[in-house]
Design a protein that fits this description.
seven-stranded mixed sheet; alpha/beta; Rossmann fold; Quinone Oxidoreductase, Chain A, domain 1; 330 residues; 10 helices; six-stranded parallel sheet
Length: 330
C-alpha cells in the first residue's frame, strides 16, 4: 500500500508499506480522508521526540472497515488508545488515561491507504456523512472539549463575553466557529498569516488582527483562547484578559515559558489547560459536524495523498489560506 512517511525533518515521502496487520480486537480501515494536524507539522519540523523518522503520521481520519467485524461500516475514531481500566478511564476521562498510546505516534497513523486500530476506538458515522467533514471530528472535538471546560468556569454566559482567540489554525478557527454557534456576539481572532486572517473574517465573521497591531486596550476580554501555545501568545493572553476572566490554553508550540503569576493571583484569573477530548466529546462532535454546527467547512482544502509532501511544504511556508488540509488516499 502507499503511505506518506515522515523520513527526515522537513521531509515526508510517499512510499510503499506493508498492508497493516491487526491484533486481536483490532480492525483494518480503508482510509477515506485524513487531516494534517498541527502536531503532525510539529513532528515534520523535527520538534517532537516522540515521533521519529520512519513513522507514518496522521490521526484525524475517516474510513471504512476493510477487515474485521462490521466490514463496510463507515467510521471515524479516537486516535488515543485508552487502557479502559485506570482511574481516569473509570471516570470517563479517557483522554487522561495513564496508559494511553496513540495512532500516528506510538503506532502507524492514517496517512496511508489502510491502517489498523482497536475496534473500541471507532465511532460510527451517520449515513451519507461526507468523509472530509468526518475527518474534522478530531480537531473539532478538541475545540468542543475546550469550550465545555471553559463554560463551567466563566462567570457570565458565553454570549455576554468578549472573546479573543489567539491563532487562526484549525483549532483556533473551529473554536471561533463553535463560539459563534453558541451565541458569542463578539469574537476577535489574532493570526500572523494574512491569508488565514482573511479566511477567518470570511468564514467565521471574526474581527482579526496581525502582528504589530493592538487588538484593543489591555484587559479587555472576558475569555481568551490560546490555540498556539507559544511564549508570545501566553503573554498576550495574560495582557488581554480582564480581572476574573478565563484563559483556555490549548496550543503546545512551546513546551515551557514563564507566565504572569502575579496577575493570575491578584486579578483572580482562571487558567485552564486542556488535552484533546473524551470519547463522549467525539460522539457529540460527529453529530455537530453532521448538523452543520461548524458551518459549511468551505475553508478546508482537499488534496490527494500523493500531493501530501507538497501540502506539508505549503503549510510550512504559509502558502495556503486553508487552516486545514485533508488528504484523500483513494
Amino acid at each position: 500500500m502507499k503511505a506518506l512517511v515522515y523520513t527526515n525533518p522537513n521531509e515526508v515521502q510517499l512510499l510503499e508499506r506493508p498492508y497493516p496487520e491487526s491484533a486481536e480486537g483490532e480492525v483494518v480501515l480503508k482510509i477515506d480522508a485524513v487531516g494534517i494536524c498541527g502536531s503532525d507539522m510539529h513532528a515534520y519540523h523535527g520538534h517532537d521526540p516522540r515521533r521519529k523518522p520512519g513513522l507514518v503520521l496522521g490521526h484525524e481520519f475517516a474510513g471504512t472497515i476493510a477487515d474485521g467485524p462490521r466490514t463496510g461500516l463507515r467510521v471515524t475514531g479516537n486516535p488515543l488508545i485508552a487502557c479502559g481500566t485506570c482511574d481516569y478511564c473509570g471516570q470517563g476521562r479517557d483522554n487522561l488515561c495513564s496508559n494511553r498510546t496513540m495512532v500516528g505516534m506510538t503506532r502507524p497513523g492514517a496517512f496511508a491507504e489502510f491502517m489498523s486500530i482497536p475496534a473500541q476506538c471507532l465511532v460510527e458515522l451517520p449515513d451519507g456523512m461526507d468523509p472530509l467533514r468526518a475527518a474534522l471530528t478530531e480537531p473539532a472535538a478538541t475545540a468542543l472539549h475546550a469550550l465545555r471546560l471553559s463554560m463551567r468556569a466563566l462567570h457570565r454566559p458565553l454570549p455576554e463575553c468578549r472573546t479573543l482567540v489567539l491563532g487562526g489554525g484549525a483549532i483556533g478557527l473551529l473554536c471561533a466557529l463553535l463560539l459563534r454557534s453558541y451565541g458569542a456576539r463578539e469574537v476577535v481572532l489574532a493570526e500572523t498569516n494574512p491569508l488565514r486572517r482573511a479566511s477567518a473574517e470570511r468564514h467565521a465573521g471574526c474581527k482579526t488582527y496581525g502582528p504589530g497591531v493592538a487588538a484593543t486596550a489591555s484587559g479587555a476580554f472576558d475569555y481568551v483562547i490560546d490555540a498556539v501555545g507559544a511564549k508570545a501568545t501566553r503573554n498576550a493572553a495574560f495582557e488581554a484578559i480582564k480581572p476574573g476572566g478565563v484563559i483556555m490554553h490549548i496550543g503546545l508550540q512551546d513546551w515551557a515559558s514563564e507566565i504572569d503569576m502575579r496577575k493570575l493571583t491578584l486579578a483572580e484569573v482562571t487558567l485552564i489547560g486542556t488535552y484533546t477530548y473524551t470519547t463522549a466529546d467525539l460522539r457529540a462532535t460527529v453529530a455537530a459536524l453532521y448538523n452543520n454546527v461548524f458551518g459549511d467547512l468551505a475553508w478546508v482544502e482537499e488534496r490527494r495523498l500523493d500531493e501530501g509532501a507538497a501540502a506539508f511544504a505549503d503549510l510550512h511556508h504559509g502558502r495556503t489560506a486553508a487552516a486545514k488540509v485533508v488528504l484523500r488516499p483513494h
